[in-house]
């Protein structure tokens, strides 16, 4: 029943996201014309679980939506990950302007299922988080330009837990936090390989679902994230990502995350992503592996 | 964009002692302003070996790809108007030479430099992306493996600064 509720609320969220994206494209008719014909397929990336465009786990130096440097675009996504003991859902929207600036929002819902009961939070207790993101592409291009010059972007993510009393009880020092990151991304056409490196300064525990900072450390630490993907065709990219994470909470060890993904562009506007995801130990429960599925619409 | 029609106009008005077209021009080509012929105008160094030439089906395959690519661009409802006033005969020849030269399939390039040949055409990033998509369609129709398509595009991608305005 609670799972149903969360599904409905996720669906509702995603519907608002898609509606917002639709109304956005409907507004400036001339801007749309300028924006045509748009980016090359998949070069807006997919949506990360934190809302920014990139891989599934890590932001890339690409800008959301189909707009080129002469236009504005947007993308919206719904993401579901069924893990061994938990369920993760997120919905997000990102607006990209002039292939330069990206503003994003994501709502994450982390359903503890039976673990919530075991931890005394109540069965199916959900950790929720809002993430507002801003990303600016500073230099370079993911496809064009000198072969060894990647696109380079810098971003911030303001994260706010919606479960302040609980994350404090778990040992988090704050119920909000800010991540800072820089990403370098390049599609090396000579090898059909896309590479990304991201450095992130963060205090977030489990991306912030368990709050920010903790008893072991309450300062930003620099984490490394990387993606490597092979482009099989215009429409299909297969790759893997790795993301190191801080370990701030005494009561629950936090592991690095990785995934192996396939992203398929059904057409210019719809991209489907499937990933095998290993999130390691979360809130003392080990082995949180599972399948992530994402549907993204972009304009 | 008006350049070629201006040239055509100038030709009509010109006295009969107009310089003969260069030897490498195809019959039916319009004259262009003189320029220095240099394979370096192709904007990229050729691949080594014959692997890429074979992946593209040799000169015959490259010619079919270029013919289809140029035809797609002229017929394109998004970027067709950029090509509308251009000399299709010359364009097919020079693009064939450029591709054949870069793919190391036994040609030299006699066309103009990328910057001067795209000057003042007002080409936007989206136009170039569309052009790439048309090239991908033409290469796919000739069954060029996708990895080889990308390898070829890696030679063209750095040319953006000479093609796209700003």
Task: Write a brief caption for the model.
The complex is a heterodimer of chains A (299) and B (166). Chain A has 299 residues and is of the alpha+beta class.
Structure in words:
The complex is a heterodimer of chains A (299) and B (166). Chain A is of the alpha+beta class. Chain A has a single domain (2-298), classed as Beta Barrel (Porin), CATH 2.40.160. Chain A contains four helices and 14 strands. Chain A has helices spanning 2-26, 29-35, 113-118, 164-170; strands at 46-47, 53-54, 72-83, 87-97, 101-111, 126-139, 151-161, 176-188, 193-202, 221-231, 236-243, 257-265, 270-278, 289-298. In chain A, the strands form two sheets. A twelve-stranded antiparallel beta barrel of chain A has the order 3-4-5-6-7-8-9-10-11-12-13-14. A two-stranded antiparallel ribbon of chain A has the order 1-2. The longest helix of chain A is centred in the N-terminal third of the chain and has 25 residues, at 2-26. With 166 residues, chain B is mainly α. Chain B has one domain (35-163): Orthogonal Bundle (Globin-like), CATH 1.10.490. Chain B contains nine helices and no strands. In chain B, α3 packs across α5 (88-102) and α3 (58-75) packs across α7 (125-141). The longest helix of chain B has 18 residues, at 58-75. Classes of the chains: A alpha+beta (299), B mainly alpha (166). Chain A binds chain B through residues 34-40, 68-71, 99, 141, 143-147, 188-192, 231-234, and chain B through 78-79, 124-130, 132-133, 136, 146-147, 150-151, 153-154, 157-158, 160-161, 166.
